[in-house]
Amino acid sequence: MKTIGITLLTLVLAGNLWAADSAAAGREIRAKNQDAIVTIKLVVKYSMTFGGRDDQRETKTEAVGTVIDPTGLTVISLTTIDPSAMMKNQMRGMQQEMKIDSEVKDAKIVLADNTELPATVVLRDKDLDVAFLRPVEKPAKPLTAINLAKAGKPQLLDEVVCLNRLGKVANRVVSVSLERIDALVERPRPFYILGPGGSSGIGSPVFDLTGAILGIILIRNAPTDGEANLASMFSGSSGSMGFMPVIVPAADLLEDAKQALETKK
User: Fold this and answer.
1) 29-78 pLDDT tens trace
2) pTM here?
3) Where are the beta strands (DSSP E) in 98-233?
4) Do domains 23-33+147-255 and 36-143 have the same CATH topology?
5) First to last CA, the chain
6) Alpha-carbon dihedral 235, 239, 241, 247, rounded to 10 degrees
7) Cis peptide upstream of residue 190 (ω within 30 degrees of 0)
8) Coil/strand/helix, residue 29
9) How deeply is 119 buried, as exposed, middle or buried, from its count of CB atoms within 10 A (0-12, 13-18, 19+)?
10) Distances (CA, A) of 186 to 30, 148, 192, 204, 216
11) What is the pLDDT of residues 147-205, one digit of tens each?
12) Which of 68, 72, 142, 194 could be joined to 135 by an S-S link, Cβ 3.0–4.6 Å?
């Protein structure tokens, strides 16, 4: 009995040390990268046609963005400024078609010190649900950025570190959480799925415990048959409704990022 007790105590202590190491890694990753997580202020004009009726409106919104180059090139979810793909999936199967167009009338990158940089959208990729913003004028000094070229690759059930910049009500601080990789999808293109408790925001970066970037949380859209799965709605799962948040690998974003850097204003 004494031997069993010692063994259990050893396992408990080892588990506590492992948890402490993970927490320390999360704090270090947050300290190094928090200034690269920014708020994006947007004014978007929407034009919608449905059932013979036209509707136009402008909406002010905020989103989370991740700076990936010292020049200020920033990644956000395309769904933030163009929800047409998601809405069309939800309306699929209805007799009347919906047409929706969006135009970004104004965009500002809000840095950690609350400096606001007027920005413009330079590239969109619907397949990846990504849009790239760039400051209209070159920043006075290089910005803190996350290098997508130095990427890691997770294994199933790996613990990962998620960063997220909260909203105005929380004074826009950067939160950090430890999550696990629940699934690895390889086809038709690779992406990673966090566990159901994942609390990081769309547009936020995810790292492994060594600090290597894994990817950005974006929206994965896929056609549905128009019949939403009610069970998944009540359980909080969005996959069977045609969309869900996923981690798009850094390597997949890198090619678009290079093109966005070369795009003229």
Assistant:
1) 999 999 999 999 999 998 888 777 888 889 999 999 999 999 999 999 99
2) 0.84
3) 98-110, 116-125, 130-135, 159-165, 174-185, 191-194, 205-207, 213-221
4) yes
5) 73
6) 120
7) no
8) helix
9) buried
10) 29, 19, 9, 21, 16
11) 999 999 999 999 999 999 999 999 999 999 999 999 999 988 999 999 876 556 899 99
12) 72
Domains of the chain: which residue ranges?
A: 23-33+147-255, 36-143
What is the token pair recorded at 14?
């080892």
Distance of alpha carbon 216 from alpha carbon 89, whole angstroms: 23
The reply to whether CATH 2.40.10.10 applies to domain 36-143 is yes
Q: How far, CA to CA in Å, does 4 sit from each of 7, 10, 16, 18, 28?
A: 5, 10, 18, 21, 36
Instruction: Measure the CA dihedral 29/30/32/35, to 10°.
Output: 150
Q: Do residues 102 and 81 lie in contact, with contact meaning Cβ atoms separated by under 8 Å? A: yes
- Looking at 3.90.25.10, 3.40.190.10, 3.30.70.100, 2.40.10.10, the CATH number of the domain 23-33+147-255 comes to 2.40.10.10
**HSE-CB of 91 using CA atoms within 13 angstroms:** 15
